Amino acid sequence: MEPFAAVDVIRAKRDGGVLSPEQIDWVVDAYTRGMVAEEQMASLAMAIFLNGMDRVETSRWTAAMIASGERLDFTVLGATADKHSTGGVGDKITLPLVPLVASFGVRVPQLSGRGLGHTGGTLDKLESIPGWRADLAGGEMMTILREVGGVICAAGSGLAPADKKLYALRDITATVDCIPLIASSIMSKKIAEGTGALVLDVKTGSGAFMRDESAARELARTMVDLGTDAGLPTVALLTDMSTPLGLTVGNALEVRESVEVLAGGGPADVVELTLALAREMLAAAGRPDADVEAALRDGRAMDVWRRMISAQGGDPDTALPLAAHTHMVRAQADGVLASMDAYPVAVAAWRLGAGRARKEDSVDFAAGVELHAKPGDAVRAGDPVLTLHTSNEATFPRALESLDGALVWAPADTEVPRRPLVLDRIAAS
Ligand code: URA
C-alpha cells in the first residue's frame, strides 16, 4: 500500500502549497519504481514549473533524486574537486582544467555528457581523439583517479536514475526551463558523483542555456544553496557567453585549442577562465596557493593530460581528424568587430555536422567554425574572419545562412569595450 496518492501531491502543488519532505521522498521514489504514472509526473512537473519550489523543497527533491541511485565515494583518495558548466559555445574548458587541477594532487572525477542541440558535449570532443573511450568499466574510474589524478568519462546509468527519467519527460512537456528542476537535476548528479568540492560555471548570454543574466544568477544561487545544504562546498562563477569562448567551435578543433592551452599558449579568454576555475577548485580542496599559471607553463598539466588520454585508450600524439572541406569568410571592408553572437555560430557549427539533432545521431568530429577575429579586433578588407570546416560540403550554404547578421562591424578605429568574462562570484550564503 502506497502512503500517498499522486493526485493529492499534484493538487497540493497545483494550489500553490509547499510539499512535505515525506511527499517529495515518496513521489520521486514511486515515480522511479513506476508507481507514479508518466502523466501524473508530467502534471506535477508543470505545477512545479508554474508555482516553484522553495529552498527546503528543492533540497529535499535533490536528495530524493540522489537516493534513487548509487552514490560514488572517493574519500579514500583524499581531496577531490569537480566543475560543472551549464554549457556554452566553444566551451572546452573541462579539457585543460581537469589535468591542470589534477597536477596539484587534487583528484578530479568528472562525469560528462554528449552534446544535444546547439551546445557541444565534452565526451564528443574527447572522442575525436582516435581510440579514446568514454565508457569505463566498474573500478576503472577509481584506478585512473588513483594513478593519474583526473578522469573524464560517461556517467553510468546507476547515478540519479530518477533524474534521467524525469529529464526525458520534462524535455517533451515544456518543463525544462524551470530553475528548481534544473538546479536539482544538475546537483543531484554532481552530488551523487562523489566530488568533495564543486565549482559551477553558470553562463549567461545568447549562447547559454540561461540567456538572461538575472535568471542565470538565480540558477547559480539555487545550485550553490543546494550544494551547501547537502554538505558539499560549492561556489559558482557567473560568466559571459554572449560570444564564443576561444577561437574554435567543434569537437577536434576544440581539442586542438585545449592542447595549445596545456602547452602554455591558447586564446586569452580560454586561459583566463581555465585559471579562474582551477583557482576556485584548488582553493575549495585546500590548495589556495597553487601556482596554476606555472603548471601550464612548465608542462605539468600537459603531462597529466597525456596520461589521462592514454589511460582511456587514446594516443595523445595521434593526428586529430581534419575536415575535407573548408570555406573562409573574409572581411568586406576595414573595420572593428563590434560583436559576434554566440548562438548563430553554434548553429553554424551544428549545421556543418559538429552536433546532433537526436541522441542516436553521430557527429562529424572534424566539423566546426574557426574564428580569426574576436570582438574588439580590427581587420582590413579581405582579412579572414571565420573558417568553416566540414566533411560534407553540401552543409556550407545552410551554415552560412545561420551566420547572417551574427557579426556586427563598427568603423575602423572604433574603441569597442571588452566585456568582462567573469561577471560575478556566488558563494554560500
Ligand atoms: N542539464 C541538466 O542536467 N538538467 C537540466 O534540467 C538542465 C540541464
How would you describe this protein?
Helices cover about 40% and strands about 15% of the residues. It is an alpha/beta fold. The protein folds into three domains: about 45 residues, Transferase, Pyrimidine Nucleoside Phosphorylase, Chain C (Transferase, Pyrimidine Nucleoside Phosphorylase, Chain A, domain 3), CATH 1.20.970; about 220 residues, Pyrimidine Nucleoside Phosphorylase, Chain A, domain 2 (3-Layer(aba) Sandwich), CATH 3.40.1030; about 90 residues, Aldehyde Oxidoreductase, domain 3. The strands form four sheets. It has a four-stranded mixed β-sheet, with helices on both faces. A four-stranded antiparallel β-sheet has the order 6-9-11-7, sandwiched between helices. The longest helix has 17 residues. It starts with 5 loop residues before the first helix and ends with a strand. About 50% of the residues are buried. The mean pLDDT is about 95. The structure holds uracil. The site of uracil has 6 residues, from helix 9.
Question: How would you briefly describe this protein structure?
Answer:
The chain is α/β, with parallel strands linked by helices. The protein has helices at residues 6-14, 21-32, 38-51, 55-67, 94-102, 122-127, 140-147, 161-171, 179-192, 213-229, 251-262, 268-284, 292-297, 300-311, 342-354, 396-402; strands at 82-85, 108-112, 150-154, 198-204, 234-240, 248-249, 325-330, 335-340, 368-371, 378-379, 384-390, 407-410, 422-426. The chain is built from 16 helices and 13 strands.
